[in-house]
Write a structure and sequence with these properties.
Helices cover 40% and strands 27% of the residues. The chain is α+β, with helices and mostly antiparallel strands and 440 residues long. The chain has a 5-stranded mixed β-sheet, sandwiched between helices. A 5-stranded mixed β-sheet has the order 14-13-12-17-18, with helices on both faces. It is globular and about 85 Å long.
Length: 440
């Protein structure tokens, strides 16, 4: 099997690390070939804080995926999130020297590269530069400027910024686990890729990915990413609260949350009680489900209100920016009972739980389509897309070589126009690879 047909996503989360191997089937849907999952020990709120433990967890997940699929993994696409991520709006322009030619990909690349040179705060680095809409010679709201005439090309950008050290630590872990880094993607973007339909992105939608350590938000409107944010709370703080509130150990708190937890306290009768075995020789503890859901409710409301604030900051209340498709919840935290109703109650927006089966083949095992795996599925999809672009480019180059034998002059023009469209992160990933190689 050719290796460029297969891609691997590595989701380094706060509670779990997932390695997923996938490929396109003949219908252009993604087949999952293998999944490996391990407990994540060295990550706190989406940021690596113990390199050795993280490397071990990565190796364990990778090994499991290799055993599951019988395929050797060499390179992975990694997701990045964490409380150090922030995003900003920026507009920039270039003046084209030759306005006789139409605008091409190179001009857009030049404009994007100019944004990459923005001066950030010390210790910060640009991860993504996402063009929103373009202006050509003052004509605004141009979606696709390629092929138009114009001397001045400007664009509004959504720029995602992260901490250099955190990003390098992730790169370091992947490399030390014996893997190559094929690319880095912002996790909310990966999750969005896996669970949102094109119609939703057009209509306007907010994707809320509730993970263990962080809650990620991505807002789309008119098919374009408009806003991203990472909120440093997730499922773990809920578990933490249950642990404190009921004086039990973390493992029991987590089980309670998953089995009996609900985000809506009115659901439970006063007499519903769970008995939890005490520690070594101590009396068992009795906890009412009503209390349990009150604790969960309080924390979940806090998380949702923070996210809703971000949605309002984006400008959801303006008519033009209204998110018609409402909210899509995904991530492990989306499996909490009655969460959908609570989110609808707080925000007044339509809500659904997002399963990552938008682009998956029909025969996928059901456990891989739970919201927990949304990010991993999205990372594999991103990686497959990039590989497809590269493969097409290579075919183009081969065609060119053949044509070159036939006619020298024609091909010079051909070659100029057939430049592969670089992803936002390609240059960035190359920089990181170089940095890691130098550090060895």
């Amino acid at each position: 099997m050719e290796n460029n047909k297969i891609a691997v996503g590595l989701d380094i989360g706060t509670t779990k690390i997932v390695a997923m191997i996938g490929q396109y089937n003949e219908y252009g849907k993604m087949e999952i070939l293998g999944v490996g999952k391990s407990k994540s020990l060295g990550v706190h709120r989406g940021v690596v804080n113990n390199i050795t433990q993280t490397i071990q967890s990565i190796q364990q997940a990778i090994q499991e995926a290799e055993t599951d699929s019988g395929i050797k993994i060499t390179e992975v696409e990694v997701g990045i999130a964490g409380q150090h991520i922030r995003s900003l709006q920026h507009s920039d322009y270039i003046t084209r020297s030759n306005d006789e030619d139409v605008i091409d990909e190179e001009d857009i690349d030049r404009l994007c590269n100019q944004v990459h040179k923005l001066v950030m705060l010390p210790g910060e680095e640009i991860i993504h530069v996402l063009p929103q809409d373009f202006k050509v010679d003052g004509q605004s709201e141009v979606k696709e400027p390629v092929g138009m005439y114009g001397a001045r090309l400007e664009a509004n950008f959504h720029v995602v910024v992260g901490q250099v050290s955190s990003i390098r630590n992730i790169g370091r872990c992947v490399k030390s686990a014996g893997l190559e880094l094929s690319g880095i993607t912002l996790e909310p973007l990966a999750s969005a890729n896996a669970v949102l339909s094109q119609e939703e992105k057009e209509a306007g939608v907010a994707l809320i990915d509730i993970g263990g350590g962080t809650t990620d938000l991505a807002i789309f409107k008119d098919g374009i990413i408009r806003h991203t944010a990472v909120i440093p709370f997730g499922g773990n703080v809920i578990t933490e609260d249950i642990k404190e509130g009921c004086s039990i150990i973390e493992k029991q708190a987590e089980l309670l949350k998953i089995k009996f937890g609900s985000a809506w306290p009115g659901e439970n009768k006063d007499n519903e009680i769970v008995s939890i075995p005490g520690l070594r020789g101590r009396e068992p503890k009795e906890i009412t489900l009503k209390n349990l859901s009150k604790i969960i409710h309080a924390r979940v409301v806090e998380i949702i209100e923070q996210v809703y604030l971000e949605i309002k900051n984006y400008g959801h209340e303006e008519q033009k920016k209204k998110l018609i498709a409402g909210i899509v919840l995904t991530g492990g935290g989306a499996q909490l009972k009655h969460l959908k109703q609570l989110v609808e109650y707080i925000t007044g927006m339509d809500t659904r739980v997002g399963y990552p089966n938008e682009h998956l083949a029909g025969n996928t095992q059901s456990d891989a389509t739970t919201p927990m795996y949304a990010t991993a599925v999205g990372l594999v999809l991103n990686s497959l897309e990039n590989k497809l672009k590269e493969a097409n480019f290579k075919e183009d180059v081969l065609e060119n070589v053949i044509e070159e034998k036939e006619s020298q002059e024609e091909v010079a023009v051909e070659k100029k126009s057939r430049k592969p469209k670089k992803g936002f992160l390609d240059g960035w990933g190359e920089k990181l690879k170089k940095f890691l190689d130098d550090a060895e």
